[in-house]
Specification:
With 376 residues, this protein is an alpha/beta fold. The chain has two domains: 118 residues, 2-Layer Sandwich (Beta-Lactamase); 177 residues, 3-Layer(aba) Sandwich (Rossmann fold). The strands form four sheets. It has a seven-stranded antiparallel beta sheet. It has a seven-stranded mixed beta sheet with strand order 12-11-13-14-10-15-16, sandwiched between helices. A two-stranded antiparallel ribbon has the order 8-9. Helix 6 runs parallel beside helix 7. The protein is globular. The protein starts with 5 loop residues before the first helix and ends in a 5-residue tail after the last helix. Keywords: ATP-binding, Nucleotide-binding.
Length: 376
């Protein structure tokens, strides 16, 4: 709260407790209504802190307020966070990411930085102790007494970062969550925290509980950080968030051939999306990942589905229900719940046929054709 100018802080401090406890995003847009999201809901916020679904009744942040907020977020030095501005966000103490919207400035066709910033999305980072307890047992490699190489997949804001944070804690503690693994020891975990969200380090020290055997490279590019970890910190498991660039894939391949297990996340809806993204498709088709975890959050609940590499390849060549993460978060849970979770043998969602195909030869495949939006 200390980051916000006093007038905005006064409004937010009066938000009802039930919303504050589940607060996930605060959206501040210049001369437009103040909005928050909590649980699976969103509301506009009046000047007295009460909530409404009528945007015309909401508190409207002024240009001066937004300028003051930017000064506070950047610690009065935009140049000090120039690299983060180029990527469209700033991470502040506590691991909270503030997404920025405004006018982009290009240099040779690439975004060099942002200016005229008039929109802020404050994403609240929270630790969820125990969040990983139902997922980790399904990722175990009993022969090697560790986890399989795993990719966690979901659209944004479904809990990927929260899950890998708790998985790091469990692995570092040796809390495997399975009776057959109760004699296993803990593992050395290395986290490459490019966006400072997983560990929320301050001056190099994590502020989230990551267990006793965890090392963090903070604000370090993933590909470079993975190689630094392998060369100098001898991790048994490396954790990275939001992979997708060619250099990420190259570094992951180097790590797994150096005997290190990899736990990563990526943005996608389902396995067809994984195979539609060139870098992820190459990793998947090469059999890099032994397990895939798909997260879906609907109606305030987070569900997960774990499939093996073999099942992933099978799913790309058969008709299946596009349900994981494909519906709005505020959709009725029972109507959107996957058939397998309902205990039913008949899916009520639209079917999409995905045909197996080789690695795309173009850099960016046609998104409409790849995702099957004509049928969805």
């Amino acid at each position: 709260m200390e980051l916000f100018p006093s007038s905005l802080r006064f409004v937010l401090e009066q938000v009802p407790a039930v919303a504050r406890e589940e607060l996930e995003e605060i959206r501040i847009r210049e001369n437009r209504p103040l909005e928050i999201s909590y649980g699976s809901r969103y509301s506009f916020v009046r000047e007295d802190g009460t909530l409404t679904d009528q945007h015309r009744e909401a508190f409207v942040p002024s240009k001066e307020l937004c300028r003051a907020l930017l000064e506070r977020v950047t610690n009065h030095s935009i140049y000090a966070v120039e690299e983060e501005l180029r990527r469209g966000y700033v991470t502040v103490p506590g691991g909270h990411r503030i997404g920025l919207a405004g006018r982009t400035v290009l240099d040779k066709g690439l975004v060099s930085h942002l200016r005229d910033i008039a929109g802020f999305n404050v994403r609240i980072a929270r630790a969820r102790i125990g969040f990983a307890s139902q997922v980790l047992p399904g990722l175990l490699d009993f022969k090697a007494r560790t986890i399989r190489h795993t990719l966690i997949v979901s659209p944004p804001q479904q809990g990927k970062t929260t899950l890998i944070r708790d998985l790091a804690r469990c692995l570092s503690l040796g809390d495997w969550g399975h009776p057959a693994a109760k004699e296993w020891g803990s593992r050395k975990v290395g986290i490459v925290d490019e966006r400072s969200e997983i560990a929320a380090s301050e001056r190099g020290v994590p502020t989230f509980d990551l267990g006793p055997r965890c090392d963090v490279l903070d604000a370090c590019p993933k590909a470079e950080g993975i190689m630094m970890m392998v060369r100098s910190l001898s991790p048994e498991i490396i954790i990275v968030d939001e992979i997708g660039r060619p250099e990420d894939a190259e570094a992951i391949n180097e790590a797994i051939h150096a005997g290190v297990r990899v736990l990563a996340t990526a943005h996608a809806t389902d396995i067809s999306d994984v195979f539609a993204r060139p870098v992820l498709a190459k990793l998947a088709s090469d059999g890099v990942f032994g397990s895939y975890v798909f997260l879906s959050r609907v109606g305030g609940k987070v569900e997960h589905r774990i499939i093996s590499a073999e099942e992933a390849l099978q799913e790309t060549s058969r008709t299946y229900s596009r349900t994981i993460g494909a519906t709005p978060r505020d959709a009725p849970w029972e109507t959107k719940k996957p058939a397998a979770m309902n205990g039913s043998t008949t899916a009520s969602t639209t079917l999409v046929t995905v045909k197996a195909r080789s690695m795309p030869v173009i850099r960016s495949p046609n998104p409409l054709e790849a995702r099957g939006f004509d049928d969805a």
